[in-house]
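Subgroup meeting minutes
Present: P.N., E.W., G.H.
Scribe: E.W.

1. P.N. recapped why we're keeping a running log of single-chain structure predictions: easier to compare across weeks, and new members can see raw inputs and outputs side by side.
2. G.H. added today's entry (177 aa).
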Amino acid sequence: MTEGDIRRSSLKLVGLVDTLLHSQGPCTVAIYHPFRNEPNLLSLLSNPDLRGFQWALPVCNEGNTEGGLGGSADAFLDFALFSKDSALQTGKYGIPVPVSPVMVKPDVMLIPCLGFHREGARLGYGAGWYDRTLSRMVVKPFTVGICFAEDEIADSFTEAHDHILDAIVTPQEIIVV
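Output recorded in log:
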């Protein structure tokens, strides 16, 4: 996809995510800072229709030992309060994170996907951050995969450690699993 395609698709995604979030009511939403060619949803933070919502960015918590791409087996994500005016610094993988993090528990998690299946499976970069994080949570948030329609995979590909999404949003539709 070109930069223009990503920008246009991101705008469509923002409209559908706005609709989906209204069904959840004001709550704390874990959003993400776009990485590589992921959809950009950050304009949601400036949407006056979403006043009353809190936003949080994922922050990598490395766990106790060093590891490869995904950190250690006990590495997970924390979520730091975030607004359009938050000061950011470069975090793991070069992804921006808040300078002075105040950690919160999200009610909704917007999770970027490189691929998805309509039954709720998602592919990420393969490091397992979101799956490990969801495994640690006592109260599970409503999970929403954010994807480009072109990234749909026809064959199911779930593995035992995968957490199934509650919904998937593409620029064309909201899929409730």
